[in-house]
Amino acid sequence: MSETDIEEIYGPVHTGSGDLYSGSTVVMNILRETTEYLRSSGLIPHDEFRWLKRRFVPPQHFGLARDRLNGTRTVLLHGAVGSGRRSAAKMLLHELSEDTGSFAEFADEAAFPENGLFPERVKPGQRLLLDLTHSDADTLRARRRELPALRAVLDERDAYLAVVLPSHRRDWADEELTEHVVTIGRPSEHLVLQRHLAAREITPPERDDLPEELTRYLKGPLRDIDRLVELVERLGQSHPDGDVFAWLHEALVAVTERRAQAAKQVENLSEGRQRAVLFAAAMCHDASADAVFFAAQKLVELLELTDREAPRLEQRGHLAQLGDLVGVDVVDHGQPVGFTSFAYDRAVRSHFWENYPDLRSSFCTWIEEAIRSTSFTDRDRQRVVERLLDHALRTGCVLDVAQRIARWSNLDQQLYSGYWMRFAEQALVAGLRDEEHAASFRRLVYLWSWYENLPQQVGQLIVHVCTEVIAPNFPEQAIVRLHQRARREGESVEPSARQALRKLAEERGMLRRVIARFAAEFRNGRNERWLLVDLDLFVDVLDPTRLTEDTGTTKPLAAEPVVWSQLVLGLRTVMIHRAESARWLVDRWLTAVGRSRHPDLLLRLLTEAADYEPRALGALHVTARHWSRTAEGDPRVAERLTHLIDERQGIDPAAYTLVPNAEETRP
Fold it and tell me: Rounded to two decimals, what is the model's pTM?
C-alpha cells in the first residue's frame, strides 16, 4: 500500500452533525471491552517474550549466534524462509536482558523520515532488533548506509543489535559485516510441535515416530505449526474424549485437504446464488440461518446477480438452498449454520478470497453492509469482522481495511449501538500486528495524530493502540504519535495522549525517550506554534521522583550526562518562555527533593538551568522561599538551593548538604 493510498484516508469521513459519541466514558468502555476480546483472541500478546519463550526451540547454530552477539554486540541472522529467524533474534536479545523496556525495534520504512538507524536514538542498555525480511530495495540500501554509524555507538552505550536478513539477500552483508553473519538452520520440528502443544496445556505425544503426513507438514514454515496446534486445541475442547494423535490427524486434514475439497465444491456449483450462499455460510459460520440468508442476499445484490434470477417467491426456500450444499449443517432458521467437516468453513473462505482478487474490495463492502442486519448478534458481528480482517490482510487488501477503520471509528454511535467503534479498534490492532502490513497502519496512526479536528473517539483510539500495541516494539514511534496527538486534543478528553505519555514515562527507558523527544523539539526550534503547548506537556510529564530513582546497580537517570544536558535544556526553556509553569515545576521539584535519595541532583539541575542570567536565578530563589513557607515546604531545602545559587554566582558559602554523606550527583 503506497503512502498516497494512506493519504487518501487521512481525514475523518463523518459528515453528520452533533456529538459523535455521548461521552468519553462510553468510548472507554468500548475500548476496554474490545481490548479484552483482542487479548483473548491473541491479537495483543501483552507479554510477547513470555509467549515466545514457552514455545521457542533453539535453531541450529543458535549458540554460534549467541557467541557472535556477545562478542561483537552485533549479529546478522540469515536463513531460509520459515526457519524462525525473527524469533531467534528476539530470544537472543531477550537472553541479554529480561527487562522488556530495554527492547526496541527499528522500523523498516525508509521513506518515512522518523525512521532510520539514528545513533543518537540508541539508549544505554538497549537491545535492538532490525527486521529486514519484508524490506524493499530502497529500505535495504538506506539501512546498509546507516548501519556503520549505529554500530559505532553500541559499545559506548552497552547496546546490542540483532539484524534479520532477507532469505534471498545474504549479500546485503558486505565484507565489513561478513564476520557477523550466522546462517541458522531449522530447529527440530518435533520439538517445536511439543513445545507448542505444552504451551497450550496439551500433553505432547510420547512416542517419537510421527505419521508421515504430519512429518511432511512440519517441514513447512514454523509459524504454521502454531496454526496447527491452535486447531488441535479447538478439537480437544470439543472432543475431550479423544487423544492427541486423533486431534493432530483431524487438524492436519483441516489444513491440508479441506481447500481442495472446497475448490471442488465451488466448481460444481454453477449458479451465482449457490456460491453466494456457500460463501455467506462460511463467513457467517455459527450465525443463524436468517443471518446467512441476509448476508447471501446482500452479496447477490452487490454483485448484481439478481437480474439473472427468477423472482424470490419462484426460487427455492433459503433452508432448502442451504440443505442442497454438501457439508452444510443446519436444522432450522433459528439454529446456527455450521459445516459437518472440521474447519471446512475456513477452507471455503480462503478459496473465495484467494481466487477472486477483483472482488476482494466488494467482499469488504459486502461484510460491512451485511452485518447491519438485525439477524446478527453482537457476537456474530465480531466473529465475521475477525474473519474479514484475517482474509483481507492475508490477501493484501490494506487500503480496504484502512478505509473501514476510518469509517467505523466515525459512525454515529447512537444509531449503530457502538459496535462500529469496537470493529475499528479490532481492525486497527489486527493491522498493526500484521507482520507484512504493520508499517502501513503505523503510518495511518501517524497521519491521524497530526489531524487538527480529529473526532474525540478516534483520538482515544490512537492513544489506546499507541500504548498497547505500538509502544512495546516501537517505543519512539509511539511517543512521536502520542506527542503529536497531545498537542491537538481537548483538555477534558480521557484517556488523553498527555496521560499516556505520563504513564509511559513511569518506566525508566521510556522516560529517557520522552525527555529526548522534548529536548529535540526545544533544540530544533522548528515548531514555534507548539512551543507553549510542548512546555506545558514537558512540565506535566516529567516526574522528578523518577529522575532520581536508582536500582543499586544503575545511577539515577538524571545523572547520565546526555539526559542531564537534555533536562537542563528543557528546564531552561520552561524558565524563559513559561514563567507560570516554571513556578509550578519548581514547587513540585522542591517537594520531591525531601523524598529523594539524591536531593542535590534535582537542585543542581534547577540551578544550572537558571544560570543563563541573574534574573532567572533570582526568580528561582524567590520561588523557593515562597514554597518553603507553604504546608509542603521545607526551609532546609530552600536554604540548600540558596547555597547552590550562590555557588553558581561565584560566592563560596559554607558547605551544606541535605545528606551528610551525599554522593557526587553532577555528571
Answer: 0.81
